[in-house]
Design a protein that fits this description.
Layout lengths: L2 H8 L15 H4 L7 H11 L4 E3 L14 H12 L6 E3 L1 E2 L7 H12 L3 E4 L13 H10 L2 E4 L19 H6 L4 E4 L7 H10 L3 E4 L11 H14 L4 E2 L13 H10 L5 H16 L2
Parallel strand pairs: 1-2, 3-4, 4-5, 5-6, 6-7, 7-8
Helix pairs in contact: 3-10, 5-6
Length: 281
């Protein structure tokens, strides 16, 4: 990840300086750009998580990264091969790249890649005509696409992050499946409208732990709302390791499992059943 983006993503957490000890070299010590597969698998074991999806971020067209897009994706897929029964790697490729389709083809052919992470805030509207060849390729391969939604920081622009911009894409591409991250963030209403109109759209609850531990009522309310409105299309997510200093992975899993926002059947859907259906080919 480029240094400028890493700094930008640290900004929302710096308000916790008075609560948690965030002193030290934040830029170099923060475990976001690179973590060992062993670290994640260890956290999963502590938290009671069986499988995790790896989501590399391609910000290279915004600012020069510490590793090129191909080097970074190679590292993610090779790392995942160490724990094939635990880790599911997605590609991280900006659709604006001229080599985007070639890179997509490489990881599908070499690693049988099942999905791709995108970040519209790097500078594209999902429904732009210039992005259509990317969606055509995604649809041809039946990929799962996970997109960021909601707020953006630093040089990124959140005007591109609206879930409503995917409506036209989904209308024309029925073989792809789309996951709107973070329940759409500040555009949550748009997320619900999109899912109401498209059966191949899902959402996840990653970053919802940002309300914890200070305001758990908001997190519980959002979980109750999702279980009522979209019980079959909401997925557990963590955004690990971004929130780990503020609210650990294990505590987040425990919170979702133990709080009375839904019955056991709904929690089983959130923690696995819905994901299994999403990934079914």
């Amino acid at each position: 990840m480029p240094d400028s983006l890493l700094r930008a993503y640290l900004e929302p957490l710096l308000v916790l300086d008075g609560i948690f000890d965030l002193s030290g070299d934040r830029l170099n010590d923060w475990p976001m750009s690179q973590v060992r597969a062993e670290d994640l698998v260890e956290h999963m074991a502590i938290s009671g998580i069986d499988r995790s999806v790896l989501l590399p971020l391609d910000f290279g067209l915004v600012d020069p990264p510490q590793a090129g897009v191909e080097e970074y994706n190679d590292w993610v897929f090779e790392m995942a091969q160490l724990f094939p029964d635990k880790l599911i790697p997605f590609m991280g490729i900006d659709p604006q790249r001229k080599e985007a389709l070639d890179l997509m083809g490489k990881y599908i052919k070499r690693f049988d890649a099942r999905g791709i992470k995108i970040y519209p805030a790097t500078g594209f509207y999902p429904n732009e005509e210039r992005i259509k060849p990317f969606w055509d390729a995604v649809d041809d391969h039946g990929l799962v696409v996970l997109t960021h939604a909601g707020a953006a920081w630093g040089p990124l622009e959140e005007k591109y992050n609206r879930p409503s911009l995917f409506s036209e894409v989904l209308e024309k591409h029925h073989n792809m499946r789309l996951v709107i991250a973070h329940m759409g963030g500040k555009f949550r209403d748009e997320m619900y409208q999109l899912l109401a109109g498209h059966d191949n759209a899902y959402t996840d609850i990653s970053a919802l732990q940002g309300w914890l531990p200070s305001n758990p009522e908001v997190a519980i309310s959002r979980l109750q709302e999702a279980s009522r409105r979209i019980p079959g299309r909401v997925l557990f997510g963590s955004d690990w390791p971004l929130f780990d200093l503020a609210f650990s992975h294990a505590n987040w899993v425990r919170f979702v499992k133990e709080q009375p926002w839904g019955d056991d059947s709904m929690k089983e859907r959130l923690f696995g059943d819905n994901f299994a259906r999403l990934m079914r080919r």
